[in-house]
Write a structure and sequence with these properties.
Layout lengths: L2 E3 L14 H10 L2 E9 L19 H14 L4 E9 L19 E5 L2 E2 L2 E2 L14 H18 L7 E2 L17 H13 L3 E5 L14 H9 L4 E4 L12 H11 L3 E5 L5 E5 L2
Parallel strand pairs: 1-2, 2-3, 3-4, 4-7, 7-8, 8-9
Antiparallel strand pairs: 5-6, 10-11
Amino acid sequence: MELINTHCHSKYCGHGAGEVEEYAAAAEAAGITTLAFTEHYPLSPAFDPDEYLSVTPANLPRYLDAVDQARRDHPKLEIVCGVEMDYLGDTEDRSITSSDLEPFALILGSVHFIDGWAFDDPAQRGRWEEPGAPDAIWRRYFELWCAAAADTRQPFHVMSHPDLAKKFGYYPRYDVAPLYAQAAKAARAGERMVEVNTSGSYYACAEMFPAPDLLRQFCRAGIPCTVGTDAHDPANVARDIERAYRLMYEAGYREVTVPTATGDRRTIAIE
């Protein structure tokens, strides 16, 4: 079956490794036909003072040049130039124009910050240990995720790793089914896609993003779904793609939606 990966990073974000060329070569060797580079869009110094979480403004043109070069060097591989952009809600301090986003055929929407706190950064995970913290953090995370997904003014095409709050293996004491239902409703309202992100299996949660029950909710709501490995190293560019297809099939999906380099979409039947 055709393999695709619509979410990967490189050395141009502060916590990635490897050249864009290395990812393209590894993808081609693995039989991937579509590869989207989705580097983290620049954050302000207030959110990324150590230049660890996102591409620096100085490196953004270098990233774009590297993607263009990879296209020339790998003409048989469809390479999508994309970006992963944080939804910051009321704490947004960037002025992002439509011209700033012109280079990107694919924009992933993500929630990595809860009211200014990078909740999934291992260096900042201490707050999770506070009494009752997971209850409040999960609820607030889904409030922000749903706001991002439902707001048609946001430029996002795909909402990434929808239940990222589970990354460190902390779960609330209440039933999360209502949160899942809200997420599916929000994605539907905003006409978003979602992804199965295979990286979750390698964190404490030991489960892909999203959880099977959440993925079923998305499927029932008619939300198109794609697949990304969220690789931050070329060795992981093709990791668990076929497992992601099986997870989609078990949730009720019969096709994978694939963003293209021209900004369109195509589909692959899940066999």
